[in-house]
Write a structure and sequence with these properties.
By secondary structure, the protein is of the alpha/beta class. It has 5 helices and 7 strands, in the order E-H-E-E-H-E-H-E-H-E-H-E. A hairpin with a 6-residue loop joins strand 2 and strand 3.
């Protein structure tokens, strides 16, 4: 996957001695659309309009994307890292190591596959709680149902998913990587939440 990183082109502008970084760990079962969601956002186009968009399963955890964004209230510039975590069981030990340091999580499931929802609300929510070094109320967690464009195959109702999200005081979004429905709304909400709670790491640059 291509890494996109927009940087200031003015060479005369002095770079500050640090970077503001927010990292999002994207988890969920295999084939629920985690990589597709990331590509849809980073490339700013529906997945069905992206030539060569890969449908392969993610191996382990891929530091797939880096995007520079401006927070809506503070106007601070942050580097957003999106860690794409493979959902296959053979990679889960690798994924757990990323959960320990994470503070922002996307828990992704397929609206057309009830088993992936059950896994999201039992397994993935539990392993975040057990492995993350932060308390859940110190984290930003988003439950995300994908493939909402194929409503006729839906197996998980919006009401059911929202009830679970409300129990844990986390946000719930239904998105489509193929039509980009709600994708921008999801990330705009993320940036506003980061701005509010300052879920940012300060990385000092070495000179």
């Amino acid at each position: 996957m291509n890494v996109q990183n927009k940087r200031t082109s003015d060479s005369t502008q002095e770079r500050p001695p640090f970077s503001l970084v927010s990292s999002v760990t994207v988890v969920g079962d295999s084939n629920v659309g985690k990589t597709s969601l990331i590509l849809s956002y980073i490339n700013s186009s529906p997945l069905n309009q992206q030539p060569g968009a890969s449908q392969r399963a993610t191996i382990g955890v891929e530091n797939s994307c880096l995007k520079q964004v401006e927070l809506p209230t503070s106007s601070e510039i942050i580097n957003l890292h999106l860690f794409d975590a493979g959902g296959h069981e053979q990679f889960r030990n690798v994924v757990l190591s990323y959960l320990k340091q994470g503070r922002i999580f996307f828990i992704v499931f397929d609206l057309c596959n009830e088993d992936t929802f059950n896994s999201a609300v039992t397994y993935w929510m539990r392993v975040i709680k057990e492995n993350c070094k932060y308390a859940l109320d110190e984290c930003l967690i988003y439950l995300i149902g994908t493939k909402c464009e194929v409503e006729q195959y839906r197996e998980v109702s919006q009401e059911r998913a929202q009830i679970f999200a409300d129990q844990f005081s986390i946000r719930y979004f239904e998105v489509s990587a193929f039509s980009r429905h709600n994708v921008d709304c999801l990330f705009k909400t993320l940036y506003a939440d980061i701005d509010e709670v300052k879920a940012i790491k300060i990385i000092y640059r070495m000179h």
